[in-house]
Structures are given as C-alpha cells and as structure tokens.
Design brief:
It is a single chain. The protein is an alpha/beta fold and 331 residues long. The chain has eleven helices and nine strands. The strands form two sheets. Strands 1, 2, 3, 4, 5 and 6 form a six-stranded parallel sheet that branches. Strands 7-8-9 form a three-stranded parallel sheet. It has one domain: TIM Barrel. The longest helix is centred in the last third of the chain and has 19 residues, at 305-323.
Length: 331
Amino acid sequence: MKGIRIVDGLQYCNWSEEIFRQLRAGGVAAVHVTIAYHEDLQETIRNIAAWNRRFERFPGLIFAGRTAADIDAAAAQGRTAIFFGCQNCSPIGDDIGLIEICHQLGIRFMQLSYNNQSLLASGCYEGEDSGITRMGRQAIREMNRVGMAIDMSHSAARSTLQAIELSDRPIAITHANPASWHPARRNKSDEVLRALAESGGMLGLSLYPHHLQGGSGCSIESFCDMVARTAELMGAERIGFGSDLCQDQPDWVVAWMRNGRWTRDSDYGEGSAEAAGFPAQPQWFRDNRDFPGLLEGLRAAGFSKADIVGIAGGNWYDFFRTSFGPSSDMI
C-alpha cells in the first residue's frame, strides 16, 4: 500500500547499510532501536557514539529521531528516523538524575525491567512479582516529567498493571502479543491489554517467532487474525507493530540478551528451541521489505484503510507526539 508511513515499535538488528536500505524499501519512516540491554551508562553512551558514526556515514538513509515531527521529516525526505530505547533500566543504575541525562542523550523509551527483578520492577521470568518498587515509583514520576516513555514489554503482570496505574502518561508495551493467542512467557494477558488500552497506552505486536502461534511456521493469516482480535479487545487505535526483528545477529547475542553478566546458567533446557539461538523468521516477514505484504494481509483480514494507516504507523505517531516532550507539554 503506497503512501503509508510505517513505524516499528522495536528492533534490535545487527545494523548495516543493507538493513538501512531495506528500511527504505519497506517504507519504514521510523524505528525504535535498542541501544541497551544490560549496559551501564558509560557503555550505553558508547553505543550512542556508534550510532552517531552511522548517522555520519549514511545521512541519506537515517538520522536521529527525537520527536514525532521527525517522522514527518523522514517521510518527506525518504529517510528513516532512529529513536533510541533501553530494554532495561541498567543505564540509570540507582541514580534518578540519570533519567534526565538519558533523555538529553536522545533516549525516548526505557523498560522498567527486563526478564529479571530490577531496582524498579519485576521481570516476567521471576517466580514472584513484587510490583513497582519504591525507586520505581520515583522513576515513573521522573520519566513522566522529562518525556521518556515507560515500556513494560518484559515486565511481569502485577508490575505492568501498577505502572499503568501510577503513570500520569500512557505507557507502552512495545513488542509483545496476546497470551490468549500464544502463551509465551513474554506475551500479555487480556487483563493487562485491557488496562493498557483504557489508559491510552500502545501495544506493538511482535513478529519474533517465539511470540507467534506456530513459531517460525506461523501463517500470515493467523497473525492477521490475531491482530483483528486484538483490535476488538483494545481498539484498533491502540495497536501498532513492534516487530522485535533481530536481523543478522549472531546466535551468541541471545545469551547476552537473556543472561547479561548476572549468571552463567540458562533459563532454557539444553536442546530446547529457545536455547538454540535466533529462530528463523516466518517466510512472509523476513526483513523490513516485507512490511507492505503484511499490510496487504491486514487488508485481506478485513481492516479498513484508516485502521491500516493507524496500525502501520499513525498510532505510534500519536503516541510519540504526546510522550516525548516535558510534562508541561502534555496534550
């Protein structure tokens, strides 16, 4: 579908000129990229410096995104705006003041926890979900103040529901699917999704095989039917894409994502599918060039043009517009 601006709520690719050109070929105007999993602030700054070098090398393809207006600029210029985010709160350590510093460095999303318990919230792999911590409540207040979006993609259910309640601004789950469709540990219950929608939050639907019914063999019809059911549950205006595309990453990166430096063990048994590295993408979504075909799948599933425009990127645009400025700019 020509003329539709696509915004992807989360990717963690092994970035290259080839991928940047695929973003353009697929019509992706903006993408939220992970710049930290377990890195501290100094390591995160080094990752930002690496992105600055990419911006210098490929100015005709990509540039740093800071506000929703950059999506407009990207679409007009035939480039892709890159928005930074952290999949954990590691960069701020135990210093609340570093939230504003991270925002000043261009970070626009931060998860309150990855799979583990953090200083802010419980992760979805913990046996007990203690909810938002004392520091977490302060972090939510500070993120609201400076204009950094709260992301609960990897957080446990109680923590997520509390974050929705505590935040004065709508939060995001940038990359997950309904657990009622596929009961992956990271997918979200209908209770969580209803609360997210009622608060004005956003869900980015994931295309990562471990989050899909049937894994790598999931059909586009099954995925688009799930999108339709999620729209019925939440409202079509509350959903978008958060592909969680990890294109061209070596398999050892999986261990870094899951384990960081805190353990030498694995949460997955030897020989399990999730312990084997990155799974193959479904044939109908191998990289960013396949977004147009996915939009055609939504059309075939019965979505209107207006709903497709929203799901493709319009809904994320509205979320970015009201989320990234200081609280005095809230609309």
